[in-house]
Design a protein that fits this description.
The protein is built from 7 helices and 91 strands. Strand 45 and strand 46 form a beta hairpin.
Length: about 1450
């Protein structure tokens, strides 16, 4: 078959060559084809060729499978024949009685932790013996630890399988076989060693005791289990394991148990457990140090149990006081009785804190949150009897530690206990010897790349009652210790996790009992954090690079794990597919990852496997490669690239590097194509459109956390060759702690370097530097130095030839690598810095400069970055060196690098050039300062000013000059601060040179003075001056309030006023509707804007704008519907605008307009009513026979009617008593020749249709010779008029109500019938008013005329109705245009609250006062309204 295939290929090649020679062969016309026919023929030939090759490959594979199947059938036939012969032999032997005999005895085993071990033996005997297994002489019971041991017996072969071995499984195991003829024993030793992983349960010997035996029908596997976890008190932690359950039934969950330090955990408030969705989860919602320990998850499966364990570390939370100790833990109650409960706890670890001096114990009744401290003084031991408990009550306890810095956080509360549970009490066992002695010196050994295994001897004294141990560590070279565990660990071996890879540490241990912490043990020897030595993992990715028919060149990828040591050799084995035996290819190890295997048979399929070796030995072999045919490569295209590796893996990029193919084809390699696909996908995407020549490529645009695979295709002049093997999947995520290459210049040598500090390193790691991803190796242009975890690539004489991309790879790590592209600009900047270092100058932070000091001294100074004690320097002024002496003081400070010269007398002669020359070791520099012209004059002026200031400050002076502040009440304060004062010092305020005497004299001894300016406005502008002085001199501060300062003050006031501004208030007046805004203070200088519907309002006759010190207002005169809408007041403080709004529309406008009309009518009536303008006294005393004339001026529009009364009876004009009313203005009552009978109370009533008023006069007549009555003679008091409401006559107000007028001619007013509006009051006796009146302090005399009722019964007056003649209260109605609010009239529903009544009242000629005599007037509050 192979020869026929070869002859057919040769014939095709010959035909092709003949057709290619066109000069010897011409295609006939009838055989020429069109383009479509030609393309179809070519496609047919291409498909035929491909199909032919495929059929040939299938035939070869079938031949190989026939040979392999034949070999397997022959082998099975031989095995079957052997078994049949053995059975026949056994049958013969079974007939002969014999004692047990171990044909195959037990053999010793040494295994790594977590690995299973199988002990087996073969026993013969007749009858068949019974075999029992023993561990250290104790029978092995599989039921005591389900899943741990498995005993099998088949066909005379007995086995004991120990699953997941731990260190404690190290022992002598024996199998004892017994039958009726005797007993035989076979023994062997099983040794369990720590593996590279350093599993907790195997290293420290903690194996959780099983809570019980469960039977499960599920096959459960643990994947992606929780690692070693670190937490902090008060936070939460979650431990998760992913499960693979077969079969996965939603209603049948796997049985899972969680353990902490050998104790089974139960769900509760502090522990949450859940299983479902392929995840087992343990949640600790509120961590405490009690939660620290080894956590184990155990899953019961069909074949036993599966488990995983890892440690949880819980560190102290931030203490309430810096330096305070951590919280105690494990608070428990012992010796419980009705008299006391003994509380015990474990002390916290103190590393850098002060020693603990004692503890406070707190108690709390269960169900309460009130904690009570039990002991007044700290107790020094870790136990305390709590007394004075209530029998039958349940309590919880907690403990706080105390040291010199303060008190710690409280521990986690204990479980509740009842004060009568003596039967359930547990006795506290402990040592009575005091603090334990120090443990033995710890011994540390390598474990993993981030952990160390530490062991020590127990203390010689105090082992009884030992709570455990605290382990501390520190980095070699550092003085700071840190705690490795935060809860006492019971065993004397511990795995310290969370260490920095490659760092060197030492350890110490302390023992803990109830009396506290022991002395620290001796320090362990220093140990570097490196993984324990192990053999390397298996290589992978074996690929064929070339074949010449008798040899094959293969390559492979290096192991993923080197086992903590450098790979020193590779060993290759081969076999042909027809054989099961492997043959060594190389006896001596090879270092390269490429090997050429010779002496092969052409046409034969071969398989290869590779093993790697390091100092620990030869590792596991790789998986056999795919069968590769030994067939000479003759294709014109190149072979595959190989050794594809990744570096610089980041979140969105990585670098792929490969090696050139061994087989180049018919021409040289011209480039490469890189293809990428997501993991699990076969759809590769080319990353480059055209071939690249370099053997590396930075791939960008990756998705973080996504997995990718890559391959490389090589190109030469004849096409694209075979693709490389597909890489293993890589995740686009950087390794933890990834750092980048940094560039710099050595400060000592000036060398330019690239440096990388590796985040992860092991003992066998090496830094491999490359340029453009080609290893640099030995190169005279650069040197490589490595110190610890840092490697540096230094350039000797860098130039443009050194530009490029530099990368570094750290071997035996999880992909630690980085790169940096050195550009020309970066190199030039570093060359400048390098030149400065190699040719040093004294670097200056500040060049030579000057400053003027007090007293007018001038300081010339410069500051260097660094000075040595040996520095020398000199100052040169105008080419002359200046030395320290009279007038000059020269000094320097090494610590700050400052060099200075102080010139005490700086004058016009000091003008010139100043130079400072510095020489420090090899470095030197100088700095100059030119002080000439205007620059010099500025300095000279400042020096002279400082001299004057110094003189000024010798006496009382201003330490801070005048400025202003504004108080919360908007009072402007001019403030200043004074210094160097004494009791005799005086202080005066002036404005425009006129002295101001404040209410509170200035207190200069307080150090501050202030002048208040209340109600600040434009009139307060001017020049203010403060003068302070005494016998030592005086000082003046001037402050001009104008321009910007005035605007700043107004803005400050506006800010406070705007913040305090109330909402707009509606107020009606007789002139119109007013909107008012109250604030702390208002002045017209403030930037206040009124707006109507966003349009600015200007003050006019229609819209009046004004204000008082308490408010701003805007009045709409004679309002109409056009004035409806939203009104806004805006107060600007220069930074912010404060706005208040009011919507004057709808019902609010309607009610306000009605109130305005009512007030307008009331004001008109008040203006035109009848009234007495003056001229009448209050009391008249006259001798008999004299003539009395009472004359007054009256007014009203229309002209009022005037009526006079005596003792409430109308007076008629006659010869004795004459009444006159001239011109409607003057009214008189003249009594001729008065007699004592004329004594009495006289009154005048003046009224018209709008109302009126009356005035009372008391007349006393005494006889000749009698003593003049005590009536305050010489102190004539004018009578005060009392207002009379209007009569029911039409008024010009828009009211429809009409009131009749009273006749003045009748001696007594006619009674009026009851109507809606009663008659107005008069001096006649009146019925009770409809409104209550205040009580009078003086009984009222009877009135001769009836008083009318209130004009409008349904309308309440804003002031109470008054009974005549009670004293009249002050009118509550202000004058027109009053800025204060008026109260809303009862019966009028206003949309906004009103202040005082808006009815304006003209000024009365005589104010109303309270007197012993009753008031003689009454006033109607408002005219009638609708």
């Amino acid at each position: 078959m192979k020869s026929s295939s070869r002859s057919r290929s040769q014939a095709q090649a010959t035909a092709t060559e003949a057709m290619a020679e066109s000069e010897y062969y011409t295609i006939p016309v009838f055989r020429q084809r069109t383009r479509e026919e030609t393309e179809g023929t070519e496609e047919y030939q291409r498909v035929s060729t491909k199909l032919e090759k495929g059929l040939a490959a299938i035939q070869e594979e079938l031949q190989r499978m026939r040979i392999s199947t034949k070999a397997q059938v022959d082998s099975l036939a031989i095995e079957r024949e052997v078994k049949e012969k053995m059975y026949r032999k056994v049958d013969l032997l079974e007939e002969i009685p014999r004692m047990p005999d171990f044909i195959v005895a037990l053999r010793p085993h040494t295994v790594w932790e977590k690995m299973p071990v199988k002990l087996f033996c073969t026993v013969l005997g007749t009858p068949r013996p019974i075999v029992k297994w023993y561990k250290g002489g104790v029978p092995v019971d599989p039921l005591s630890a389900p899943g741990k041991y498995k005993i099998e017996s088949k066909y005379g072969v007995h086995s004991l399988i120990i699953s997941r071995c731990v260190v404690s499984d190290t022992a002598d195991y024996s199998a004892v076989a017994t039958n009726s003829h005797g007993t035989a024993t076979s023994a062997a030793t099983v040794t369990v060693r720590r593996g590279t992983g350093g599993g907790w349960s195997s290293q420290i010997g903690i194996v959780p005791r099983l809570s019980g035996s469960y039977f499960s029908k599920l096959e459960v596997s643990l994947v992606h289990c929780f690692p070693v976890t670190f937490g902090v008190e008060g936070e939460s932690a979650s431990l998760q394991c992913s499960l693979v359950v077969v079969p996965d039934l939603p209603n049948l969950l796997p049985i899972i148990e969680w353990y902490r330090d050998e104790k089974l955990l139960q769900p509760g408030p502090l522990v949450g457990m859940s299983v479902g969705g392929g995840v087992a989860n343990l949640v600790l919602p509120h961590l405490a140090k009690d939660d620290e320990g080894l956590y184990t998850i155990r899953v019961f499966t069909k074949d036993g149990t599966s488990e995983h364990c890892a440690y949880l570390f819980v560190s102290d939370a931030t203490p309430p006081v810096a330096g305070a100790p951590g919280a105690p833990m494990s608070v428990k109650a012992y010796d419980i009785s009705s008299e006391y409960i003994l509380v015990a706890w474990k002390p916290p670890n103190t590393v850098n804190e002060a020693p603990i001096t004692g503890y406070f114990v707190d108690r709390c009744e269960v169900g309460s949150d009130s904690w009570v401290q039990c002991n007044d003084a700290p107790v020094k031991v870790c136990k305390y009897p709590v007394q004075n408990l209530k029998p039958g009550h349940s309590y919880q306890f907690r403990v706080r530690a105390v040291n010199s810095a303060g008190v710690s956080r409280a521990s986690r509360p204990s479980h509740g206990v009842t004060a009568l549970d003596a039967a359930e009490s547990t006795k506290l066992e402990g040592s009575h010897e005091g603090v334990a002695s120090a443990p033995g010196q710890p011994v540390a050994t390598r474990n993993t790349k981030s952990s160390v295994f530490v062991q020590w001897e127990a203390p010689r004294h105090g082992q009884e009652g030992l709570m455990g141990y605290y382990i501390d560590a520190r980095v070699v070279g550092s003085k700071d210790w840190f705690a490795c565990n935060h809860k006492p660990f019971k065993l004397n071996r511990f795995v310290v996790h969370g260490l920095t890879p490659g760092e060197t540490y030492v350890f110490r241990v302390q023992a803990v009992n109830v009396f506290g912490l022991s002395e620290e043990s001796q320090e362990s020897g220093p140990i570097a954090v490196e993984p324990a030595l192990a053999t390397p993992s298996a290589p992978y990715g074996i690929s064929l690079l070339n074949c010449d028919g008798s040899s094959m060149t293969v390559s492979w990828s290096s192991p993923k794990r080197c086992g903590g040591s450098k790979i020193i050799a590779y060993y290759v084995d081969r076999r042909d597919v027809d054989s099961l035996a492997w043959k060594e290819v190389n006896v001596n190890g090879i270092m390269d990852q490429v090997c050429t295997v010779d002496n092969l048979t052409e046409g034969t399929f071969y398989e290869f496997k590779v093993q790697a070796a390091n100092m620990a030995g030869v590792g596991l072999p790789s998986a056999p490669s795919l069968p590769m045919k030994c067939e000479a490569w003759t294709m014109e295209q190149p072979g595959p690239a190989y050794d594809l590796t990744f570096s610089e893996v980041r979140s969105h990029s990585l670098v792929l590097v490969w090696k050139a193919p061994v087989y180049t084809g018919a021409s040289a390699v011209s480039g490469y194509f890189v293809d990428m696909a997501k993991k699990g996908s076969c759809e590769f995407v080319a990353l480059n459109e055209s071939a690249i020549t370099q053997r590396y490529m930075q791939v960008t645009g990756l998705e973080e956390g996504e997995w990718y695979v890559f391959r490389v295709r090589t190109v030469n002049g004849h096409g694209i060759g075979r693709p490389s093997l597909v890489t293993e999947a890589i995740c686009a995520r950087p390794p933890p702690g990834t750092k980048e290459i940094i560039t710099g210049v050595d400060e000592e040598t000036g060398d330019i370097f690239l440096s990388l500090e590796a985040s992860d390193i092991s003992q066998g790691s090496a830094f491999v530097w490359s340029k453009n991803y080609k290893p640099i190796g030995e190169c005279p242009r650069v040197t490589v130095s490595t110190k610890g975890r840092t490697s540096r690539l230094s350039f000797m004489n860098p130039d443009k030839d050194d530009l490029g991309r530099y990368s570094v790879l750290v071997t035996d790590t999880d992909g630690v690598s980085a790169s940096h592209t050195l550009t020309e600009d970066e190199l030039n900047s570093m060359l400048e810095l390098s030149h400065a270092i190699r040719n040093p100058i004294v670097p200056l932070k500040h060049g030579l400069n000057y400053e003027v000091l007090e007293k007018g001294h001038v300081r010339f100074w410069a500051q260097a970055v660094k000075l040595s004690p040996a520095v020398t320097y000199r100052f040169v002024v105008n080419d002359k060196e200046v030395t320290s002496g009279e007038g000059h003081k020269i000094s320097h400070d090494v610590s700050t690098g400052v060099i200075q010269m102080i010139v005490e007398n700086f004058t016009r002669d000091s003008e010139g050039t100043y130079t400072l020359q510095i020489h420090d070791g090899k470095a030197k520099t100088q700095s100059s300062l030119v002080l000439v012209g205007d620059v010099f004059l500025v300095g000279l002026k400042e020096a002279e000013f400082q001299r004057r200031e110094y003189v000024r400050k010798q006496g009382a002076h201003f330490s801070e000059y005048l400025t202003f502040t504004v108080n919360e009440d908007c009072t402007v304060m001019l403030t200043c601060k004074v210094a160097n004062v004494k009791k005799e010092t005086t202080f005066h305020w002036y404005k425009e040179d006129e002295e101001i005497i404040p209410e509170t004299p200035p207190n200069v001894m307080s150090g501050a003075c202030a002048l208040p300016i209340p109600l600040f406005s434009r009139k307060d502008q001017g020049v203010y001056k403060a003068v302070i002085g005494d016998d030592r001199g005086k000082d003046t501060s001037i402050y001009e309030i104008s321009g910007k300062i005035f605007d700043d003050i107004i803005n400050a006031i506006a800010r406070l006023a705007g913040e305090s501004a109330s909402e707009l208030v509606l107020q009606c007046t007789p002139e119109g509707i007013r909107l008012q805004c109250y604030m702390t203070y208002y002045t017209e200088e403030m930037k206040t804007v009124w707006k109507h519907k966003e349009s600015k309002i200007a003050s006019s006759e229609k819209m009046r704008i004004g204000g008082t010190s308490e408010m701003a207002w805007m009045q709409i005169c004679d309002p109409s519907d056009k004035e409806k809408g939203l009104y806004t007041i805006e107060i600007s403080d220069g930074v912010k605008t404060h706005a208040r709004t009011f919507d004057l529309s709808g019902q609010a406008y309607t009610d306000a307009y009605e109130e305005y009309l009512r007030l307008k009518a009331a004001a008109f009536a008040e203006k035109n009513r009848g009234r007495v303008l003056g001229g009448l006294p209050d009391v008249v005393t006259i001798m008999e026979d004299k003539s009395l004339s009472l004359t007054c001026t009256v007014w009203g529009d229309p002209t009022p009617e005037v009526t006079w009364f005596k003792n409430e009876q109308e007076v008629a004009s006659n010869e004795h008593t004459r009444i006159t009313f001239d011109g409607g203005k003057f009214s008189s009552l003249v009594i001729n020749q008065v007699t004592p009978e004329d004594s009495g109370k006289y009154s005048i009533n003046v009224r018209n249709k709008y109302g009126g008023e009356f005035v009372e006069i008391t007349v006393s007549v005494y006889r000749h010779g009698e003593q003049i009555p005590d009536s305050k003679m010489g102190q004539t008091k004018m009578a005060t008029p009392a207002v009379i409401p209007p009569s029911k006559t039409p008024t010009p107000a828009p009211s429809k109500t009409q009131t009749p007028t009273l006749s003045m001619k009748s001696s007594t007013p006619a009674s009026t019938p009851k109507s809606q509006t009663p008659a107005p009051k008069s001096p006649t006796p009146a019925p009770k008013s409809t409104t209550p009146a205040p009580k009078s302090t003086t009984p009222a005399p009877k009135s001769p005329t009836p008083a009318p009722k209130s004009p409008t019964p349904g309308l309440k007056s804003p002031t109470p109705g008054l009974k005549s003649p009670t004293p009249a209260p002050k009118s509550p109605t202000p004058a027109p245009k009053s800025p204060t609010p008026t109260p809303k009239s009862p019966g009028f529903k206003s949309p906004t609250p009103f202040g005082k009544s808006p009815t304006p009242v003209p000024k009365s000629p005589t104010p109303s006062v309270k007197s012993p005599t009753p008031s003689r007037f009454m006033k109607s509050p408002t005219p009638p309204r609708k």
